[in-house]
Amino acid sequence: MPKYIFNKDTLNYEEYTSSGRLKLVKGLLFFAVSVAAAALYLWFYVAVLGCDLPKTAFLKKTNARLNSRLELLNRDLDSDAEYLESLQSRDNDIYRSVFGMAQIPAEVRNAGFGGVNRYAYLAAIDRTGLMTRTEVRLDVLTKKAYLQSNSFDEIESVAKKAGDMAVCIPSMPPVVPDRNIYHISSSFGYRSDPFTGQKKRHTGTDFACEVGNKVFATADGVVESVRTSSYGYGKFVVVDHGFGYKTRYAHLSRIDVEQGMTVTRGTLIGLTGNSGRSSGPHLHYEVIYMGNYVNPMNYMDLAMSVDEYAQVTEKASAPAGNPA
Fold first, then answer.
1. Residues 157-185: pLDDT tens digits?
2. How many CA atoms lie within 13 A of 206 on its CB side?
3. pTM here?
4. Cα–Cα distances in Å, from 185 out to 124, 173, 182, 209?
5. What is the 3-state composition of the chain as percent helix, strand, coil, each rounded to the nearest 5?
6. CB of 272 within 8 A of CB of 215?
Protein backbone atom coordinates (compact mmCIF):
# COMPACT_ATOMS: atom_id res chain seq x y z
CA MET A 1 0.00 0.00 0.00
CA PRO A 2 1.48 3.43 -0.96
CA LYS A 3 2.34 5.96 1.77
CA TYR A 4 1.24 9.64 1.73
CA ILE A 5 2.74 12.71 3.40
CA PHE A 6 1.26 16.22 3.88
CA ASN A 7 2.89 18.94 1.74
CA LYS A 8 2.87 22.25 3.66
CA ASP A 9 3.47 24.25 0.54
CA THR A 10 0.63 22.84 -1.50
CA LEU A 11 -1.50 21.93 1.45
CA ASN A 12 -2.13 18.50 -0.15
CA TYR A 13 -1.34 14.87 0.67
CA GLU A 14 1.17 13.59 -1.79
CA GLU A 15 2.32 9.97 -2.36
CA TYR A 16 5.67 9.24 -0.68
CA THR A 17 8.34 7.40 -2.63
CA SER A 18 11.63 6.38 -1.00
CA SER A 19 14.93 5.91 -2.80
CA GLY A 20 16.28 2.42 -3.64
CA ARG A 21 19.36 2.99 -1.51
CA LEU A 22 17.27 3.64 1.55
CA LYS A 23 15.30 0.45 0.93
CA LEU A 24 18.54 -1.53 0.72
CA VAL A 25 19.83 -0.07 3.97
CA LYS A 26 16.58 -0.90 5.74
CA GLY A 27 16.65 -4.46 4.36
CA LEU A 28 20.21 -5.06 5.50
CA LEU A 29 19.45 -3.59 8.90
CA PHE A 30 16.43 -5.87 9.29
CA PHE A 31 18.47 -8.88 8.23
CA ALA A 32 21.25 -8.05 10.70
CA VAL A 33 18.78 -7.62 13.53
CA SER A 34 17.14 -10.95 12.65
CA VAL A 35 20.46 -12.79 12.60
CA ALA A 36 21.47 -11.24 15.92
CA ALA A 37 18.15 -12.20 17.46
CA ALA A 38 18.48 -15.76 16.17
CA ALA A 39 22.03 -16.01 17.49
CA LEU A 40 20.97 -14.65 20.85
CA TYR A 41 18.12 -17.14 21.02
CA LEU A 42 20.43 -20.00 20.05
CA TRP A 43 22.99 -19.01 22.70
CA PHE A 44 20.30 -18.77 25.36
CA TYR A 45 18.79 -22.13 24.32
CA VAL A 46 22.11 -23.98 24.38
CA ALA A 47 24.27 -22.18 26.98
CA VAL A 48 21.69 -21.04 29.51
CA LEU A 49 18.95 -23.69 29.22
CA GLY A 50 21.45 -26.49 28.46
CA CYS A 51 19.41 -27.89 25.61
CA ASP A 52 20.80 -29.64 22.51
CA LEU A 53 20.19 -28.63 19.00
CA PRO A 54 17.76 -30.95 17.18
CA LYS A 55 20.52 -32.53 15.07
CA THR A 56 22.78 -32.95 18.10
CA ALA A 57 19.94 -34.49 20.09
CA PHE A 58 19.21 -36.90 17.22
CA LEU A 59 22.86 -37.94 16.95
CA LYS A 60 23.14 -38.44 20.71
CA LYS A 61 20.02 -40.57 20.73
CA THR A 62 21.34 -42.66 17.85
CA ASN A 63 24.74 -43.03 19.54
CA ALA A 64 23.11 -44.12 22.81
CA ARG A 65 21.06 -46.72 20.95
CA LEU A 66 24.17 -48.09 19.20
CA ASN A 67 26.13 -48.17 22.48
CA SER A 68 23.30 -50.15 24.06
CA ARG A 69 23.49 -52.66 21.24
CA LEU A 70 27.27 -52.92 21.67
CA GLU A 71 26.84 -53.49 25.41
CA LEU A 72 24.35 -56.29 24.72
CA LEU A 73 26.74 -57.74 22.15
CA ASN A 74 29.55 -57.72 24.72
CA ARG A 75 27.35 -59.57 27.22
CA ASP A 76 26.75 -62.22 24.56
CA LEU A 77 30.49 -62.32 23.90
CA ASP A 78 31.12 -62.87 27.62
CA SER A 79 28.86 -65.91 27.51
CA ASP A 80 30.42 -67.17 24.27
CA ALA A 81 33.96 -66.71 25.64
CA GLU A 82 33.09 -68.63 28.81
CA TYR A 83 31.61 -71.50 26.79
CA LEU A 84 34.60 -71.55 24.45
CA GLU A 85 36.98 -71.75 27.44
CA SER A 86 35.08 -74.77 28.74
CA LEU A 87 35.42 -76.41 25.32
CA GLN A 88 39.15 -75.70 25.31
CA SER A 89 39.56 -77.22 28.77
CA ARG A 90 37.64 -80.35 27.82
CA ASP A 91 39.53 -80.52 24.56
CA ASN A 92 42.94 -80.52 26.26
CA ASP A 93 42.13 -82.43 29.46
CA ILE A 94 39.70 -85.03 28.12
CA TYR A 95 39.33 -85.44 24.37
CA ARG A 96 42.96 -85.05 23.33
CA SER A 97 44.20 -86.89 26.41
CA VAL A 98 41.97 -89.92 25.77
CA PHE A 99 43.43 -90.36 22.31
CA GLY A 100 47.01 -89.64 23.38
CA MET A 101 47.17 -86.34 21.50
CA ALA A 102 49.35 -83.46 22.65
CA GLN A 103 47.57 -80.55 24.29
CA ILE A 104 47.31 -77.23 22.45
CA PRO A 105 49.37 -74.73 24.51
CA ALA A 106 47.72 -71.51 25.68
CA GLU A 107 50.29 -69.45 23.76
CA VAL A 108 49.14 -71.13 20.54
CA ARG A 109 45.46 -70.58 21.29
CA ASN A 110 46.07 -66.89 22.09
CA ALA A 111 48.72 -66.14 19.45
CA GLY A 112 48.41 -63.67 16.60
CA PHE A 113 46.92 -60.54 18.17
CA GLY A 114 49.95 -58.40 18.96
CA GLY A 115 52.12 -56.18 16.80
CA VAL A 116 50.62 -53.86 14.22
CA ASN A 117 47.59 -51.86 15.29
CA ARG A 118 44.84 -53.33 13.15
CA TYR A 119 42.20 -51.06 14.60
CA ALA A 120 43.69 -47.61 14.01
CA TYR A 121 40.85 -46.77 11.62
CA LEU A 122 38.43 -46.74 14.57
CA ALA A 123 40.38 -44.21 16.63
CA ALA A 124 38.79 -41.14 15.01
CA ILE A 125 35.20 -42.31 15.51
CA ASP A 126 35.43 -44.30 18.74
CA ARG A 127 36.14 -41.89 21.58
CA THR A 128 34.94 -44.29 24.32
CA GLY A 129 36.86 -47.28 22.94
CA LEU A 130 33.78 -49.52 23.18
CA MET A 131 33.64 -50.20 19.47
CA THR A 132 37.36 -51.04 19.32
CA ARG A 133 37.13 -53.41 22.29
CA THR A 134 34.16 -55.16 20.73
CA GLU A 135 35.95 -55.52 17.39
CA VAL A 136 39.03 -56.96 19.12
CA ARG A 137 36.94 -59.46 21.09
CA LEU A 138 35.13 -60.60 17.94
CA ASP A 139 38.44 -61.19 16.17
CA VAL A 140 39.89 -63.07 19.16
CA LEU A 141 36.86 -65.32 19.56
CA THR A 142 36.67 -65.96 15.81
CA LYS A 143 40.32 -67.07 15.74
CA LYS A 144 39.95 -69.24 18.85
CA ALA A 145 36.76 -70.82 17.52
CA TYR A 146 38.50 -71.60 14.22
CA LEU A 147 41.43 -73.23 16.03
CA GLN A 148 39.04 -75.21 18.24
CA SER A 149 37.10 -76.37 15.20
CA ASN A 150 40.31 -77.64 13.62
CA SER A 151 41.17 -79.45 16.86
CA PHE A 152 37.80 -81.21 16.88
CA ASP A 153 38.30 -82.20 13.24
CA GLU A 154 41.66 -83.70 14.20
CA ILE A 155 40.11 -85.55 17.15
CA GLU A 156 37.31 -86.85 14.94
CA SER A 157 39.88 -88.22 12.50
CA VAL A 158 41.71 -90.02 15.33
CA ALA A 159 38.44 -91.21 16.90
CA LYS A 160 37.54 -92.99 13.66
CA LYS A 161 40.62 -95.10 14.28
CA ALA A 162 39.71 -95.75 17.92
CA GLY A 163 39.30 -99.43 17.15
CA ASP A 164 43.02 -99.54 16.45
CA MET A 165 43.78 -97.99 19.81
CA ALA A 166 43.17 -101.20 21.74
CA VAL A 167 46.05 -102.99 20.02
CA CYS A 168 48.34 -99.99 20.58
CA ILE A 169 48.05 -99.95 24.37
CA PRO A 170 50.95 -101.94 25.96
CA SER A 171 48.76 -104.36 27.87
CA MET A 172 50.78 -107.60 27.96
CA PRO A 173 54.07 -108.42 29.74
CA PRO A 174 57.29 -108.06 27.71
CA VAL A 175 58.43 -111.56 28.80
CA VAL A 176 56.63 -114.89 29.10
CA PRO A 177 54.55 -114.60 32.31
CA ASP A 178 56.09 -117.67 33.92
CA ARG A 179 57.30 -116.96 37.46
CA ASN A 180 59.82 -119.78 37.09
CA ILE A 181 61.60 -117.67 34.47
CA TYR A 182 61.64 -114.22 36.09
CA HIS A 183 60.91 -112.21 39.19
CA ILE A 184 60.30 -108.47 39.65
CA SER A 185 63.57 -107.17 41.06
CA SER A 186 62.68 -103.48 41.05
CA SER A 187 59.35 -101.71 40.70
CA PHE A 188 58.41 -98.30 39.34
CA GLY A 189 59.03 -95.38 41.70
CA TYR A 190 61.73 -94.22 44.09
CA ARG A 191 64.36 -96.68 45.28
CA SER A 192 67.96 -96.81 46.47
CA ASP A 193 70.27 -96.73 43.47
CA PRO A 194 72.16 -100.07 43.37
CA PHE A 195 75.39 -98.26 42.49
CA THR A 196 75.29 -95.10 44.64
CA GLY A 197 72.81 -96.04 47.36
CA GLN A 198 71.09 -92.68 46.91
CA LYS A 199 67.33 -92.38 46.59
CA LYS A 200 66.47 -92.11 42.93
CA ARG A 201 63.38 -92.47 40.78
CA HIS A 202 63.18 -95.74 38.89
CA THR A 203 61.32 -95.10 35.63
CA GLY A 204 60.31 -98.67 34.80
CA THR A 205 59.92 -102.25 36.01
CA ASP A 206 62.84 -104.69 36.16
CA PHE A 207 62.32 -108.33 35.23
CA ALA A 208 65.29 -110.24 36.66
CA CYS A 209 66.01 -113.34 34.58
CA GLU A 210 68.79 -115.27 32.88
CA VAL A 211 70.53 -113.81 29.84
CA GLY A 212 68.85 -114.95 26.61
CA ASN A 213 65.16 -114.90 27.56
CA LYS A 214 62.94 -113.66 24.74
CA VAL A 215 61.54 -110.11 24.94
CA PHE A 216 58.37 -109.29 23.00
CA ALA A 217 56.61 -106.10 21.90
CA THR A 218 53.73 -105.40 24.26
CA ALA A 219 51.56 -103.66 21.64
CA ASP A 220 51.44 -102.77 17.95
CA GLY A 221 53.69 -99.93 16.83
CA VAL A 222 56.75 -98.79 14.94
CA VAL A 223 60.33 -99.12 16.16
CA GLU A 224 61.38 -95.56 16.89
CA SER A 225 64.99 -96.18 17.83
CA VAL A 226 67.56 -98.94 18.28
CA ARG A 227 70.57 -97.90 20.35
CA THR A 228 73.66 -99.42 21.91
CA SER A 229 75.80 -97.81 24.63
CA SER A 230 78.31 -99.02 27.18
CA TYR A 231 76.46 -97.21 29.97
CA GLY A 232 72.89 -96.26 30.80
CA TYR A 233 70.36 -98.46 28.99
CA GLY A 234 73.01 -100.46 27.14
CA LYS A 235 71.38 -102.15 24.16
CA PHE A 236 67.79 -100.91 24.01
CA VAL A 237 64.78 -100.47 21.73
CA VAL A 238 62.03 -97.84 21.82
CA VAL A 239 58.69 -98.59 20.14
CA ASP A 240 56.19 -95.84 19.32
CA HIS A 241 52.66 -97.24 19.57
CA GLY A 242 50.82 -94.05 18.68
CA PHE A 243 48.02 -92.50 20.76
CA GLY A 244 50.70 -91.08 23.05
CA TYR A 245 52.22 -94.44 24.06
CA LYS A 246 55.85 -95.56 23.81
CA THR A 247 57.72 -98.49 25.40
CA ARG A 248 61.41 -99.07 26.08
CA TYR A 249 63.21 -102.44 26.37
CA ALA A 250 66.69 -102.02 27.87
CA HIS A 251 69.86 -103.93 28.84
CA LEU A 252 69.31 -106.43 26.02
CA SER A 253 71.95 -108.90 24.89
CA ARG A 254 70.56 -109.09 21.35
CA ILE A 255 68.25 -106.92 19.25
CA ASP A 256 66.04 -108.51 16.58
CA VAL A 257 64.32 -105.41 15.13
CA GLU A 258 65.43 -102.38 13.16
CA GLN A 259 64.52 -98.70 13.32
CA GLY A 260 61.38 -97.96 11.30
CA MET A 261 60.18 -101.56 11.44
CA THR A 262 56.46 -102.15 12.08
CA VAL A 263 55.80 -104.56 14.93
CA THR A 264 52.68 -106.15 16.34
CA ARG A 265 51.90 -107.29 19.85
CA GLY A 266 54.05 -110.38 20.40
CA THR A 267 56.79 -109.51 17.88
CA LEU A 268 60.22 -110.61 19.09
CA ILE A 269 62.22 -107.53 20.14
CA GLY A 270 65.39 -109.28 21.31
CA LEU A 271 66.89 -111.22 24.21
CA THR A 272 67.41 -110.22 27.83
CA GLY A 273 70.95 -109.34 28.87
CA ASN A 274 73.18 -107.36 31.17
CA SER A 275 74.38 -104.54 28.88
CA GLY A 276 74.92 -100.94 29.94
CA ARG A 277 74.71 -99.77 33.54
CA SER A 278 73.27 -102.93 35.02
CA SER A 279 73.88 -104.72 38.33
CA GLY A 280 72.78 -108.11 36.94
CA PRO A 281 70.98 -109.75 34.03
CA HIS A 282 67.46 -108.33 33.68
CA LEU A 283 65.04 -106.51 31.38
CA HIS A 284 64.34 -102.88 32.23
CA TYR A 285 60.88 -102.15 30.78
CA GLU A 286 59.31 -98.68 30.56
CA VAL A 287 55.94 -97.32 29.49
CA ILE A 288 55.91 -93.67 28.42
CA TYR A 289 52.61 -91.86 27.97
CA MET A 290 52.39 -88.34 26.58
CA GLY A 291 56.10 -87.88 27.28
CA ASN A 292 55.83 -88.96 30.93
CA TYR A 293 57.03 -92.18 32.55
CA VAL A 294 54.11 -94.18 33.98
CA ASN A 295 53.96 -97.38 36.01
CA PRO A 296 54.02 -100.38 33.60
CA MET A 297 52.18 -102.48 36.20
CA ASN A 298 49.08 -100.36 35.56
CA TYR A 299 48.96 -101.70 32.00
CA MET A 300 50.25 -105.25 31.74
CA ASP A 301 48.43 -108.36 32.89
CA LEU A 302 50.91 -110.60 34.70
CA ALA A 303 48.09 -113.08 35.38
CA MET A 304 47.96 -113.88 31.66
CA SER A 305 48.40 -117.61 31.10
CA VAL A 306 51.51 -118.94 29.39
CA ASP A 307 49.36 -120.65 26.73
CA GLU A 308 47.49 -117.46 25.95
CA TYR A 309 50.77 -115.58 25.76
CA ALA A 310 52.17 -118.20 23.36
CA GLN A 311 49.17 -117.79 21.07
CA VAL A 312 49.86 -114.05 20.81
CA THR A 313 53.56 -114.47 20.07
CA GLU A 314 52.94 -117.26 17.56
CA LYS A 315 50.40 -115.14 15.72
CA ALA A 316 52.86 -112.25 15.57
CA SER A 317 55.60 -114.49 14.16
CA ALA A 318 53.39 -116.20 11.57
CA PRO A 319 54.11 -115.25 7.93
CA ALA A 320 51.71 -112.76 6.34
CA GLY A 321 48.72 -114.51 4.82
CA ASN A 322 49.38 -117.61 6.94
CA PRO A 323 48.01 -116.85 10.41
CA ALA A 324 48.93 -119.22 13.21
1. 777 766 677 788 898 999 999 999 999 99
2. 20
3. 0.59
4. 75, 15, 9, 9
5. 40, 25, 35
6. yes
